[in-house]
Design brief:
42% of the residues are buried. The longest helix has 15 residues. Helix 1 packs parallel to helix 6. It is built from eight helices and 25 strands. Strands 1, 2, 3, 4, 5, 6 and 18 form a seven-stranded mixed sheet that branches. It is of the alpha/beta class. It folds into three domains: 173 residues, FAD/NAD(P)-binding domain (3-Layer(bba) Sandwich), CATH 3.50.50.60; 120 residues, FAD/NAD(P)-binding domain (3-Layer(bba) Sandwich); 67 residues, Enolase-like, domain 1.
Length: 392
């Protein structure tokens, strides 16, 4: 087969956005997409949000086939040869390319304990398995109180299931939210019927009489039928390392999504890029970055390169509460909370050296662009000056 004009390694949202971006500037170039998943690209956020609230599964599919791309599913790429401009998959098939995009995403961090009763929630197959289990009156344990852990615990509880959370920190979302908001969420989740074991990690796991027995750092134990681990992801950089690409918390790219190897690009969860507004390098694992960076990489590969200076946002649903966040939302920064209704509606600002680094819009909607503009301001800004700045 002649080489693809554009070859995309990965089958997620970034891969689809890249194919769409290529088609915007090149109507005829031959696109190939190699994905280890058995399914074509789909939207990932609904797996822990909308599908649990009744949104039909058919709504997640991205319709990548409409780009004319050749989708080769269930194929894992095991090697890249930049000199020959080829990649090799796990079936031994060699695929040539003129331009290559690594959209390899990330892999869930694993517990040191192996068990068939543990689900690492990441894919459509993980969702289907957990949704099927949630139809039975089983007991569920969620390990971790971060982004995925809080969403899955809420989703399972809304199905009427018994849910326990094992959280090493003292608050939910403690790495992002100020301490008082993280503690409020603990009380909020308890009011929703979630059993919370705060400041407690896992030290052991064993199967006993068909259930999982979890041992904790507080020398206690509890039983569960199903365990869902939400421990974050690690970027899949193995191919990049093998190909001689620069790797530092992801695949390092320039403002046009290019790596240090000619005609090889990277985007999405796996890419480490510079953002001018924060004057910092970022690696962002959320939908907005997957879509916007994937499209930018595709357009750049197709010959219409524009600097990727977008500052991505992310969002979440926690029972009746929800939020959008943009920039550097790190609870270790100085924070200023401007509540309209305490812990129910308001804005949290994250500051460093008199500049806004991040904004948390708590049950406050339609303000992401205004938040980006505020982050771009040089300052200095005081908490008093920030009061009432958003919403506009």
């Amino acid at each position: 087969m002649p080489p693809y004009d554009y070859l995309i390694v990965g089958g997620g949202m970034t891969a689809d956005a890249a194919a769409q971006g290529i088609r915007e500037v090149d109507a005829n170039g031959r696109i190939g997409l190699l994905s280890a998943e058995p399914h074509p690209p789909y939207n990932r956020p609904p797996l822990s949000k909308a599908l649990w609230k009744g949104e039909p599964e058919a709504s997640i599919w991205r319709k990548t086939e409409a780009t004319g791309a050749t989708l080769q599913l269930g194929r894992r790429v095991v090697g890249v040869d930049p000199a020959a401009r080829t990649v090799t998959d796990d079936r031994g098939t060699i695929h040539g390319y003129k331009k290559l995009l690594l959209a390899t995403g990330g892999t869930p961090r694993r517990l040191p304990l192996k068990s068939e009763q543990v689900i690492y929630f990441r894919t459509y197959e993980d969702y289907r398995r957990l949704r099927g289990l949630a139809e039975a009156p089983l007991r569920f344990a969620v390990i971790g109180g971060g982004f995925i852990g809080t969403e899955i615990a809420a989703a399972l509880r809304m199905q009427g299931r018994d849910v326990s959370m094992l959280v090493p920190e003292d608050g939910l979302g403690a790495r992002v939210f100020p301490a008082d908001l993280a503690r409020f969420l603990v009380d909020y989740y308890r009011q929703k019927g979630v059993e919370l074991r705060m400041g407690e990690g896992m030290t052991g796991l064993e199967a006993r009489a068909g259930t999982a027995v979890v041992r904790t750092t507080k020398n206690s134990q509890f039983t569960s039928d199903v365990i869902v681990a939400g421990l974050g992801i690690q970027p899949n950089v193995e191919l990049a390392e093998q190909a001689g690409l620069r790797v530092d918390n992801g695949v390092v790219v320039d403002e046009l999504c290019r790596t240090n190897q000619a005609d090889i690009y990277a985007a999405g969860d796996v890419a480490n890029f510079h953002n001018p507004a924060l004057d910092a390098r970022l690696r962002v694992e959320h939908e907005d970055n997957a879509n916007t960076m994937g499209r930018a990489a595709g357009r750049a590969m197709g010959g219409e390169a524009e600097p990727y200076h977008h500052l991505p946002f992310f969002y979440s649903d926690l029972f009746e509460l929800g939020y959008e966040a943009v920039g550097e939302t790190d609870s270790r920064l100085e924070t200023f909370s401007d509540w309209k209704v305490p812990y129910r509606e308001g804005v949290v600002y994250y500051l460093k050296n008199g500049r806004v680094r991040g904004v948390l819009l708590w049950n406050t909607w339609g303000q992401v662009d205004h938040a980006r503009a505020l982050i771009a301001e040089r300052g200095p800004l005081t908490a008093r000056e920030l009061k009432g700045r958003l919403p506009r």
